[in-house]
Amino acid sequence: MYDFHKSVVYQCYFKSFYDSNGDGVGDLRGVTAKLDYLQKLGVDYIWLNPFFPSPQRDNGYDVADYCAVDPRFGTMADFEELSREAEKRGIRLMLDMVFNHTSTEHEWFQKALAGDPDYEDYYIWREGGPDGTPPNNWESKFGGNAWQYVPEKGNWYLHLFDPTQADLNWENPRVRKELQNVIRFWMGKGVKGFRFDVVNLISKGSYESDDQGDGRRFYTDGPRVHEFLHELNEATFGTDAEIITVGEMSSTSMENCYKYAGADTGELSMVFSFHHLKVDFVGNEKWVLVPFDFQKLKNILFSWQTGMSDHNAWNAVFWCNHDQPRVVSRFGDEGEYWKPSAKMLGTVIHCLRGTPYVYQGEEIGMTNPGFTSLDQYRDVESINHFHILRDRGLHEDSAYDILRVHSRDNSRTPMQWDASEGGGFSEAEPWISMNPNHKTINAASQVDDPDSIFAHYRKLIALRKQYDVIANGDFAPLDMAHPSVLAYTRRTDREDLVVINNFYRKEADWTCPVDLDGFTCLLSNYADSRAETKLHLRPYESLVLYRAN
Q: What is the per-residue pLDDT for 268?
């Protein structure tokens, strides 16, 4: 049995990972081709973004068939080969389940449109106002109203995301049975991990208009969500003790996550929460330009660490994914201190209590691409919000500045394998532009370099397996008020760990409030770091200090 406390998950946005057949799009065989690289990195699971048949309106999160492989990404035989080859290397697969909604091209929705009453009840339909207005004022996560009118039916269906992503009606037991069958299908293929997309939105509450906001308070962490997840657990993955699960929790509360990821609550193994990645927002509005709030970042990270620990619940810990900008561009330094800042950011996450997730390219310090034209973007959210920003009167240059910081496409550019023209990703023109800095930032230049970012991530992953204090130790913050240092301790009866990180390029003086007698420096991003009580921290300096008791 894999211990997910000691495990590390690698997110493979395979569409941008490696193109095995020269069509400019990554595919399943491309993942298989790079398994030796992932084995060298040391990861335990590969989370694959959706590869199911899809019109790709939202890059595969608009699923048209849950139990098949989209031909543009390969075949079921390709998936089975990937599974076998990964298993040979001690790596298991985690699949991405999009159960809040389906594509409107899904057979279920097409039957609903055709008037089949059984399938109409698979989705959420409401009548609009007498003047032709939508049922309520809820807003789509991608901009605009969350309801789509269907003239042939004379009513509206709910889509919390794109209009082609119709929300499923989880109140219908037949829908829940269908989704259980999907999980069982992939369990039959040997899958040992499931990631559930925006799963805390599946239970809707009242459908009234929201006079306080965009409607999210009526459908986030809804009234039956824990019941639904417990039922899904008992009927499917909960029957196999080796399967791990993670839920993506949109705008959630910590109190709900105690249940979602509680050790004894029978729902999920762990949860993603995103509050720490809203510290460069204004409220919940991300389409703005403001400096990140370091004190808020510390407060959120540390409160989730202590709160989840106090309630015996488990976090997924991460900086990056397919929906987030590159962390070294966001919180680090793309220039002179690119390497030490990337290492520091990795250290912060990998020494926390929780299962770390590495997003492809993070382990080599990939950065945002700095796109300058709308035709370089592929993300529906980014394109929609560019037009929304322009409609609000924002100058085109300012709108581009915001996209360059916050667009989801920042993380979706092709993996930078080498310095060749196509970056080693594809011999064809890629589906989205390659980051021009691939000639200097690439895997080939790092895999055998003992001082590389890749080597640092390898060490972090290995340390989690070697030292029980990292996997299972208690957590406590240190010096919360310091304006530039993020530090904390991990502790068991037998081991102590002190993790110290200068979050800025400015040097910082810091006095450790913990007695460091007997501690040694286990890992640092500077060659001569020492376990000293009074530290003069260099730009982005990061230290992991250890003592066996």
A: 98
